[in-house]
Amino acid sequence: MKADNQKEQSYYLIREDFLPEAMKKTLEAKALIERGKADSIADAVQMVGLSRSAFYKYRDGIFPFHAIVKERIITLFFHLEDRSGTLSQMLAMVAEAGCNVLTINQTIPLQGKANVTLSLNTSGMKEDINVLIKRLKSLEFVEKVEILGTGA
Fold first, then answer.
1. Is 64 helix (H, G, I), strand (E, B) or coil?
2. pLDDT < 70 stretches in the chain
3. Distances from the Cα of 141 to the Cαs of 64, 91, 122, 124, 144, in angstroms?
4. What is the structure's pLDDT at 59?
5. What sequence ranges are listed for the domain ACT (predicted)?
6. Spatial separation of the C-alpha atoms in residues 105 and 107, rounded to whole Å
């Protein structure tokens, strides 16, 4: 049995609007440092309006979603209108983003709608996963896109 200080870590996927403001600002500060737009932690926290103590409290425990899914597999669920060429259009967009399709599952269309599940290897992605999802959602035949899960 593990000691309390050696507990296995649990991770959760949480929508941004559920995060406390200090966690959001910690992510902003980390991004400023990564992009070289802030010379130091002190500069970054001042730019986003966060205390240094709050930054240090959260910095090792919160990460942007794209950092978690890099070098991983992600499974996306789509609810689509049944039109000719929709799947090939989605797959072209996924390939353009640098993802490798591992599996495709599609239901038989009922009442003009179909469900598609894609498992993607994201290790070669050229863009942030959130940008890809936004682009996929913007396709006129896509009614819904959800992240079902991620895995190594």
1. coil
2. 1-11, 65-71, 151-152
3. 29, 14, 24, 26, 9
4. 85
5. 75-150
6. 7
Q: At which residue do the structure tokens 């640098």 appear?
A: 98
Calpha distance 136→20 (Å, rounded)? 28
- Phi-psi region at 112: left, alpha or beta (left = phi > 0; alpha = psi -120 to 50): left
20 alpha-carbon distance from chain centroid: 19
Question: What pTM, to 2 d.p., does this model score?
Answer: 0.55
CA distance 143 to 78: 7
Q: What are the CA-CA distances from residue 140 to residues 27, 45, 69, 118 (Å)?
A: 32, 40, 26, 18
Provide the 8-state DSSP code for 60: T
CB 51 within 8 A of CB 57: no
The pLDDT of residue 2 is 43
Find the length of the chain: 152
151 and 72 Cβ atoms separated by less than 8 Å: yes
On whether the CB atoms of residues 132 and 97 are closer than 8 A, the answer is yes
Parallel, antiparallel, or unpaired: how do β-strands 73-81 and 100-106 relate? unpaired
